[in-house]
């Protein structure tokens, strides 16, 4: 149930940003002592630390904005607000599931498993309303003209049909000879 509590999720995402800030600054200080040029120190920090910080900050902002949207929507239509809230909880839970390493001292193995199971449960809950959600915000089927864009729920059948109807679908790829030539060149 905590994964369906927006304030708790926002606190976790804030913690994650603080974690990456601390890690990034520590690495930047370490690199600052190792390199004469601060640009080099900055670049060596950016690749593994500051990018994670930027990503986590962006996800925090997304979650906060999503929560504001859900709150506004719930005032207008509680049923729709709950459906969209489940999409928000799915987003947040998926991030937590993918980023358990950045929550090292927060979740043990059992809790990480629980988060993963919650993602599956939320997928089921959101899936029940997915076509309705997309139909509410998407262009009509005939405008999209996509195998994935029909509202009849037959995504896999339409996608398979589109792939199989593509010219040359079962032909060998045009670049296959390059692999054969490369293998011959390596073996000689």
Give an overview of the whole structure.
This protein is mostly helical. Helix content is 76%, strand content 0%. Helix 1 packs antiparallel against helix 2 and helix 2 runs antiparallel to helix 3. The N and C termini lie far apart (62 Å).
Short summary:
76% of the residues lie in helices and 0% in strands.
Q: Which value, in Å, is the CA radius of gyration?
A: 23 Å
Mean pLDDT, rounded to whole units?
85
Percent helix, as a range, is over 70%
Q: What's the number of helices? A: 8
- Give the uncertain stretches in residue-range form: none
Keywords:
8 helices, 188 residues, single chain, mainly alpha
Secondary structure layout:
Elements: H1 6-34, H2 38-76, H3 78-98, H4 109-127, H5 130-137, H6 141-144, H7 155-165, H8 176-187
């Amino acid at each position: 149930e905590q994964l369906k509590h927006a304030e708790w999720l926002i606190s976790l995402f804030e913690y994650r940003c603080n974690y990456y800030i601390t890690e990034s600054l520590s690495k930047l200080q370490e690199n600052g002592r190792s390199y004469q040029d601060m640009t080099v120190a900055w670049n060596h920090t950016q690749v593994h630390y500051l990018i994670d910080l930027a990503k986590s900050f962006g996800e925090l902002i997304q979650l906060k904005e999503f929560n504001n949207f859900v709150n506004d929507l719930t005032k207008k239509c509680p049923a729709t607000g709950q459906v969209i809230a489940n999409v928000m909880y799915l987003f947040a839970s998926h991030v937590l599931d993918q980023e358990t390493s950045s929550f090292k001292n927060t979740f043990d193995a059992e809790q990480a498993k629980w988060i993963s199971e919650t993602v599956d449960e939320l997928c089921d809950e959101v899936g029940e309303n997915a076509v309705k959600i997309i139909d509410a915000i998407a262009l009509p089927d005939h405008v999209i003209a996509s195998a994935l864009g029909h509202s009849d729920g037959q995504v896999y059948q339409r996608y398979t049909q589109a792939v199989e109807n593509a010219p040359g679908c079962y032909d060998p790829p045009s670049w296959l000879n390059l692999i054969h030539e490369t293998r011959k060149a390596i073996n000689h």
